[in-house]
Specification:
alpha/beta; 235 residues; globular; four-stranded antiparallel beta sheet; Arc Repressor Mutant, subunit A; five-stranded parallel beta sheet; Rossmann fold
Length: 235
């Protein structure tokens, strides 16, 4: 049996009924439990009460737009979020990533493409939680627990998205090693990301804002023209 036919809950939030008519049957045939929302307030209610495993959020929705829903979800959950947008503006895509979205898909799209992206997100989360893998990393005042998908700084939990945690884990596991943006896209997203490498920059910016505080014995350094590396005072 397909490992993804196991009752994952997916929230599909879009005010376009054509999107629901295209995606809902497709995901249900794959064994997903589908939660359908047609406005932002309804989407946020489902996200908080039903705790889906992954959310698809349209940017332009009535009552509350998808970017606001994304920001509100991030206050209480690190569930994977994929933004759906009919717009081609770079601003919307990058702003979604800044607010904590893991990925975005531009309309028009095929149900097969959306399913592939959702499977990739869930696969990455499952792989990082494999019991056979090392699931906890403690470096000085930083504690990353992949089994619980939590990050602690100075003993206090700092809310982070799944992608932020994966990027942090990749860098911290390899102190002093420079990772290019392209390498991080491949290793963290787990497939050919359709956007550009500025998605990595957006996530690094969020990680720094949350964790890179004065007094830390470590830092995430930018290697201009190449990428990023994790440095401690010993490296």
């Amino acid at each position: 049996m397909d490992e993804y036919k196991s009752g994952y809950r997916i929230l599909i939030a879009d005010d376009d009924q054509n999107v629901h008519q295209a995606l809902n049957p497709y995901f249900k045939r794959e064994g997903y439990q589908v939660l359908s929302a047609v406005n932002g307030e309804e989407a946020l209610k489902y996200a908080k009460q039903s705790r889906p495993d992954v959310a698809l959020l349209d940017i332009m929705m009535p009552q509350m737009d998808g970017l606001t829903v994304c920001r509100e979800i991030r206050r209480v959950s690190n569930m994977p979020i994929i933004m759906l947008t009919a717009k081609g503006e770079e601003f919307d895509k990058l702003l979604g990533l800044e607010l904590g979205a893991d990925d975005y898909i531009t309309k028009p799209f095929s149900p097969r493409e959306v399913l592939a992206r959702v499977k990739a997100v869930l696969r990455r989360m499952n792989e990082m939680r494999e019991p056979s893998n090392k699931t906890r990393l403690v470096v000085m005042n930083l504690d990353i627990d992949m089994s619980a998908f939590t990050v602690k700084l100075n003993g206090q939990i700092v809310p982070c998205t799944s992608k932020e945690i994966e990027i942090l884990w990749t860098l911290v596991s390899n102190p002093g090693i420079v990772f290019s943006r392209e390498h991080l896209l491949q290793s963290v997203w787990g497939y050919d990301f359709p956007g550009d490498t500025r998605a990595v920059d957006s996530h690094i910016k969020r990680i720094r804002a949350k964790l890179c505080v004065n007094g830390n014995p470590w830092d995430i350094k930018t290697v201009w023209g190449v990428g990023y590396r994790f440095e401690t005072r010993d490296t």
